[in-house]
Amino acid sequence: MKALVYHGPGNRSWQDIPEPRITDSTDVIVRVDAVTICGTDLHILKGDVPAVEEGRILGHEAVGTVTAAGSAVGTVKEGDRVLVSCITACGRCRYCRTGMYGQCLGGGGWILGHRIDGTQAESVRVPFADTSVHPLPGAVPDETALMLADILPTAYEVGVLNGRVRPGDTVVVVGAGPIGLAAITTARLFTPSHIVAVDPAPARLEAAKRLGADVLVGAGDDPAAAIAELTRDLGADVAIEAVGVPETFELCTRLVRPGGHVANVGVHGAPATLHLEDLWIRNVTITTGLVDTHSTPALLDMIAAGRLDPAAFITHRFDLDHMDEAYRTFSDPKTSGALKVVLTRR
Questions:
Q1: What is this structure's pTM?
Q2: 326 and 229 in one domain?
Q3: DSSP assignment, residue 190?
Q4: Burial classification of residue 273, based on how many CB atoms lie within 10 Å of its CB (0-12 exposed, 13-18 middle, 19 or more buried)
Q5: Tell me, what's a Pfam family for it (predicted)?
Q6: C-beta separation of 152 from 299 below 8 A
Q7: Are residues 283 and 340 in the same domain?
Q8: Which pLDDT tens digit goes with each residue over 245-265?
Q9: How many other β-carbons are positioned within 10 Å of the β-carbon of residue 137?
Q10: Closest Cα to residue 110, out of 182, 179, 38, 47?
């Protein structure tokens, strides 16, 4: 079969590799019907995630069809259509028992495309299938369900829930890429008074406006002045960092009000300065996190009921065997205008 293989920083190839096999009774093999590329994959290719070894198949998001199931799998069977979550959960360890699946101690967590072969392939082995794949209702299309593999639960859990967004809040989202747009979408569930999107790219700000941002702050604008005007100089109740570079994290700490929350969602590959000389007196809460995907079933129900439409994040579609073209498009959003790309089996 074909798969996207990592060959060290800056190097990848769409190449022939052996088909995956069941190695444990809790495994399933999933034929990949739809897959996407994540900003984290770009971080890996930059060398920001040294735990990823050369020869690893990348990718941690997919929708597909079960083609084989281990003897201990009880929730899905051959022929079932499933969502492959970015987080794998053993279901038994201390963290899994409290819903912190991203910190799984039993061999799970973020392992697909990280510590084991991932989903950017024609087939993928998924461990702990009973707690790591989700059967999909027929009413939810593949590409819509695919947005539940990572960006929607990540933005919702690590951004909106960790940030404790409440009705009437002023929420600023720094970075209007896919994660930032998902944060804007899910923050609206809590009826904030204002959602402010900060991004230098006009196309991304236009997408933020379509998805519910009330105030747009672009290149050349002053985010602090915009927030001050909205909040009578108090600052934002919640600042969500959705980029993963030092400048945007530090900006969030300047935009948040005393007693407010900074929710970091971005994947950082370089140190950021924590200005405690300014923050120590302001009662600011700063949270970080890897998504646990505990919200995936609820989000899936909202999509099935028509309350959320994450297909709006998708800007480009490719055949699965056009992986290189999809990577080029996704990695150059200034030129392509890409938000989320979807690759599907012919």
A1: 0.95
A2: no
A3: G
A4: exposed
A5: ADH_N
A6: yes
A7: no
A8: 999 999 999 999 999 999 999
A9: 11
A10: 38
